[in-house]
Design a protein that fits this description.
Layout lengths: L12 H13 L2 H19 L26 E10 L5 H10 L3 E6 L2 H5 L6 E5 L4 H8 L5 E12 L24 H6 L4 E11 L38 E2 L14 H11 L14 E8 L6 E2 H18 L2 E7 L1 E2 L5 H12 L3 E5 L22 E7 L18 E4 L3 E7 L3 E7 L2 H18 L6 H10 L2 E2 L11 E2 L6
Helix pairs in contact: 1-2, 7-10, 8-9, 10-11
Bound molecules: calcium ion (3 copies).
Length: 478
Amino acid sequence: MNFGTNLICDIGYLEVILFTVLKLFVPMKIILILFASICLISCTEFNFIEVPVLNKTNPIAAPIDTFLIEGEFVPNQVLVKFRDSVSVEKRDSIFTVLSATVNEFIHTKAMKQFGDSTGLYVLDIPLKMNEALAKGKDFKELVYIEPNFIVQPVSTSNDPYYKDNLLWNMGENFGSNASIVWSKGFTGSKKIFVGVLDAGVMIQHEDLVDNMWVNVKDPLNKLDDDRNGLVDDANGWDFDGGNNSVFDGLLDEHGTQVAGVIGALGGNAKGVVGMNWNVSMIPVKFIGSQGGTISNAVKAISYLIQLKMDQQLNLVAINASWGTSAYSHSLLQAIGLAEKADVLLVAAAGNNATSLELSPFYPASFPNANIISVGASTSAGTLASFSSYGVTAVDLVAPGVGIYTTVPSKVLGSAYAAFNGTSLATAHVSGAAALYASIQKKMPSAKLIKAALLDSIVIQTNLKAKVGRAGRLNTANF
Ligand SMILES: [Ca+2]
Ligand SMILES: [Ca+2]
Ligand SMILES: [Ca+2]
């Protein structure tokens, strides 16, 4: 457990205040142990699914000086961006000074297309993180040097649900009002695409399978037919595993939950229904059992943008039900590419029950115009007790308590369960973006979709001083 990294469970105001006070007087190690205990209690109490925070390349979590570097990261690895016109010799000499070896050079087609001439280096450095950053910051040739931070999915809790009110989130009263849109004959369209940037998605789930994108341009034949650098990305890509398997078992529950809210099949007499009865979801896995690295997030976002451009897909939104307290320049730049490619990034506010104005959570707290940041609401229209908030950082709330959706199951294969979390709230908004786009005669811009979503909110006084314009998602007037 590492405070400040992500939101493995629901931490309340008291704990935050306690943390701040303790920080002044007590050594960090003791505070961390104390908070680990508090968190474990919260997790047990609310039956939260705990996400392990151990690092992939090292079975022991990276030692972190929390006072200096906020967030979990890959040990002995940094991301470095060079300024334009730095010579190869100078670059190599900097690598030598840093004792760095190049693990990977990321310079995607999408980066080049939008004028990024220098790409991103993933460097292995045999130094402590603080030393590496301090040394790197001396070089004026670098735009930035930062840890390869690790993001975590925003956790969801599996609470009991009530059969007579299974899908309140899709209905009227305090739901999304999607049912009103459906009653007008609008149930989404396969011509609208949403990127599910998350853990994997169970693409063969009975209530998802027909709404999962199939890349007809790169069938399974061991050839990269569509020449995007990834062989047989027939159903998306797994950047965590480095292969085309976007579903790797029960660990991929989080992505499957999110996909069900965006677009579980409607009218098929099975399971649940998503915001869109029909839609094309592209699963891009970058979160594995240990979380997802920023370098993989950068590649995954580039992949989606590139698909949009190469195949002229109406990709309206990328769903980002994950985050970190760490500010990453590389992630910010990747979201900037999505902005240039006219794609929304819908981001979870997090489940820390804290103000993002005081404790930012990224990507939700980034200022990019293409980001919509989402808190969670209850079936009574109030802010969910676990939901983070912020008048500037959080745009709106959407249903996030007792949300019945698709999950993988060991015994049954396709299964369903109810969850809580801003992850699910986020998926309602990504779904609403797709539903809105499917109704318009002409494909709307990201800016227009965002404006439509924010202009149609229902204002609730109980959300004042908590969320943007004090509104919750309302699709009734689409
Ligand atoms: Ca390919
Ligand atoms: Ca192929
Ligand atoms: Ca269904």
